[in-house]
Amino acid sequence: MNHQDFDTLAVRAGTQRSQFNEHSEALYLTSSFVFDSAAQAAARFAGEEDGNVYARFSNPTVTMLQDRLAALEGGERCVATASGMAAILSLVMGTMRAGEHVVASNGLFGATQQLFSGILAKFGVETSFVSATDLDAYRAAIKTSTRLFFVETPSNPLTEVVDIAAVAEIAHQAGALLAVDNCFCTPALQRPLELGADVIVHSATKYLDGQGRVLGGALVGTDQVMEDVFKFLRTAGPCISPFNAWVILKGLETLRIRMEAQSNSALELARWLETQAGVARVHYPGLESHPQHALAMRQQRTGGAIVSFDVAGGREQAWRVVDATRMISITANLGDTRTTITHPASTTHGRVSPEARAAAGIGEGLLRIAVGLESVDDIKADLARGLVG
Ligand SMILES: *Cc1c(COP(=O)(O)O)cnc(C)c1O
User: Fold this and answer.
1) Quick check: is 1 in a domain?
2) Which domain holds residue 274?
3) Which residue has the higher pLDDT, 351 or 287?
4) Does the structure show a pLDDT above 90 at 144?
5) Which of 215-219, 242-246, 357-361 has the lowest average pLDDT?
6) Range in 53-57, 226-230, 373-377 the model is least confident about
7) Is 349 touching ligand 1 by the criterion CB < 6 Å?
8) pLDDT for 179-195, tens place per residue?
9) Are residues 181 and 55 in the same domain?
């Protein structure tokens, strides 16, 4: 899909107008809906007639968000959820059963990893974690009970790039689905369904909202898979608030231009960091020095807006860079118009054992920047304060 088509869908797809013909999409803050008659109520409850019943099942503002995001990802159907984690939970609960197995890439978002290795394991869904970039490791992890492959690309915080098309082929040969967490790139930069993935996972809390206001999540896939997810959601209830859906719906309208501007700044920042004396290594898929640069440029439109780098001097020097900033926000959040900085080893990955962190390449000198929309010169100047001397 080219930019122009994407941009039109981003502002137009899914819009439904009420009897008042409002131009901007309405926010329907209602938990339930009324019927014209007892017969209509019965038909709606039985699913014989389309229409809203109760906001745990559907709400017009939520429907508009789902339809717009499905169009942007190029999928048949989207189901929105309360958060990104609620999306992942709903995917597993809707499509898997006890005794079945997941193959997941290493370097997943911390809570995702804990969900698979801790909580889901208690209910008999077992997960094998494999190196994100080692295709043989994915093949070797397959069991007869494997039903789902789950990857995140680029990974957090090291920006490792998973070969989506290759992993999709491996998953399909095993009779399993491939789910891709597309949080870091969004459909503006990467469309995994076109590469063979079956399900898209989103934390809409990040770039889809893009301004750090609300929590939300979403899954996109075939009607069949999404129906299984929806059955879980409407019964179990991890559904999105209409207010949050409305905020994210409006956020999607500026998604592509935000992602492009933030990616351009990220590339410029990454190139500048590579020239700084105190920086040992920069991790950014848009750099020629990135191990999967060629793959990243094939499957992503840009390198994205997350840049990580190792400073020489370990934790002490890394914290010095963080503490010297005056503008950049010190927070583990990402996907905001404001640039953020975090020290993964003591925050997002603080509960991971030092050995596991070292094995994953997350050193004491590693810093992660989520590049926002401020002037890139101001971002550089803010980082330079702690890097010099
Ligand atoms: C934040 C995040 C999640 C979880 O989303 P929430 O909305 O915080 O529940 C999942 N995956 C990735 C890659 C994330 O960054």
Assistant:
1) no
2) 255-387
3) 287
4) yes
5) 357-361
6) 53-57
7) no
8) 999 999 999 999 999 99
9) yes
Same domain, 305 and 246: no
Q: What DSSP string runs through 286-350?
A: TSTTSTTHHHHHHH-SS--SEEEEEETTHHHHHHHHHHH-SSSEE-S--SSSS-EEE-GGGTTTT
- Which residue, of 210, 239, 254, is where some domain finishes? 254
Matching residue, tokens 């901007």 = 24
pLDDT for the residue numbered 352: 76
Query: What per-residue confidence (pLDDT) applies to 389?
Result: 53
Residue closest via CA to ligand 1's atom 1 equals 203
Q: What is the pLDDT of residue 32?
A: 94
**Ligand 1 within 6 A of CB of 57:** no
Q: Name the nearest CA neighbour of 335 among 184, 194, 225.
A: 184
Q: Is 83 in the pocket of ligand 1 (CB under 6 A)?
A: yes
Query: Which among 237, 254, 271 is the end of a domain?
Result: 254
| CATH code (residue 289) | 3.90.1150.10
